[in-house]
Amino acid sequence: MSGNAPVILVGVDLGAPHFDGELEELGLLAETAGLRPVARLTCKRKAPDAALFVGSGKAEEIRLLAQTYGAKEILFDQALSPAQQRNLERALELPVNDRTLLILEIFAQRARSHEGKLQIELARLQYLSTRLVRRWSHLERQRGGIGARGGPGETQIELDRRMINDAIKRTKERLTKVKKQRSTQRRQRMRRDVFSVSLVGYTNAGKSTLFNALVKARAYAADQLFATLDTTTRQMYLGAEAGSISISDTVGFIRDLPHGLVDAFQATLQEAVEADLLLHVVDGSNPHFPEQIDQVQRVLAEIGAEDIPQILVFNKLDMVPEQRIAPGTRDEYELDGRRLPRIFLSAQTGAGLDALRAELTGMILEQGRGVMSPVAAPELDSDDH
Predict the structure, then answer these.
(1) Over the stretch 292-340, which tens digit does the pLDDT of each residue have?
(2) The sheet that has 6-13: what strands, in order across it?
(3) Residue 43 pairs with which residues in a beta bridge?
(4) How far apart are CA 75 and CA 155, in angstroms?
(5) Suppose 150 and one of 79, 118, 154, 342 were both cysteines; which one would form an S-S bond, judging by CB atoms 3.0 to 4.6 Å apart?
């Protein structure tokens, strides 16, 4: 993937309820990765074509579209199998990548901490291990000797596979050490009986902006997908009665998050698993917010955090045209048979933040959690290693 390269976006409607007919999210992902979408194409199928995913007729249509717009790459909104990817590249005579690799590329660009870089490296290696023969021309130059099993390139492929497997093993070992360090930090917080809160939500819901507004931190925040990858933890003082709490900003979730990334980010997402409370931040200005809430709940269930109490924070109220809901308004939202408290606010303008602080204070006092000194706990970053 080269910077600012013109790309064509392709989406296949297989009947899934969350199909993005406008390919809006894939376009945002492409732009976040530094690519430039020049055309979009969608089609309907009952099932993916085993060889080309879209079928030969649609593949030819993509090829002609690429010639017309001078595209240098094709991006699919769904995950492609290694065989489908290889077949498409032969048919289109262009690099073909999928949503999974695109997300991995963005994560690789954005990781700042030692832990984050290791997690992404592991996910990338695991992804590449299934695509060893993809456009690796040097494999064809290696010929098997007399009596050797397999055809051209067999020896080199095995060498490459061993190299990748060794790299995966080394990366896992390094990650284990980093996880132990983070676990030690968490145990220190738990020994102090600090009430811990984690911000979770769909990517670009405004978590980092809210985090900065609540704790006056300078965590990176931007109107883009995956602006934050590394967990940052700070102390937040709620007043004489409730004292201080620990609050963490975590990586954003997204539809069809690659399983390799969910596994690789277990250490980062562990902050959410071990929290006393989740602030589930929702982009209230996005018309697809119900689907985004469902996606976040799915990932929370996958990492074992579905039963942790939640407050839904409907953010970006300032971006809702002709909004009829006043910032700071509190009601309840029914989700999977549970009624969750919901607060409307704008992290950007600060409107409604006092209501959120009051809700947090009320929950802490209700649980009978003690008061602690506002300076008793250190500030912890994922960069501390």
Answers:
(1) 999 899 888 888 888 999 999 999 999 887 667 888 899 999 988 899 9
(2) 36-44, 6-13, 73-76, 96-98
(3) 12
(4) 32
(5) 154
Phi first, then psi: what are they for 6, rounded to 5°?
-70, 130
Dihedrals phi, psi of 68, to nearest 5 degrees? -65, -45
pLDDT 10s digits, 342-385: 999 999 999 999 999 999 999 888 876 645 443 333 344 444 43
- The four Cα atoms 354, 359, 361, 362 give a dihedral, to 10 degrees, of 140
pLDDT digits (tens, 9 = 90+) for 103-122: 888 888 777 777 778 888 88
Q: Where are the alpha helices (DSSP H) in the chain?
A: 24-32, 56-69, 82-92, 99-110, 114-128, 138-141, 154-191, 207-215, 259-264, 266-273, 289-302, 353-366
**CA 111 to CA 378: how far, in whole Å?**
23
Burial class (CB in 10 A: 0-12, 13-18, 19+), 326: exposed
Structure tokens at 147: 């009596």
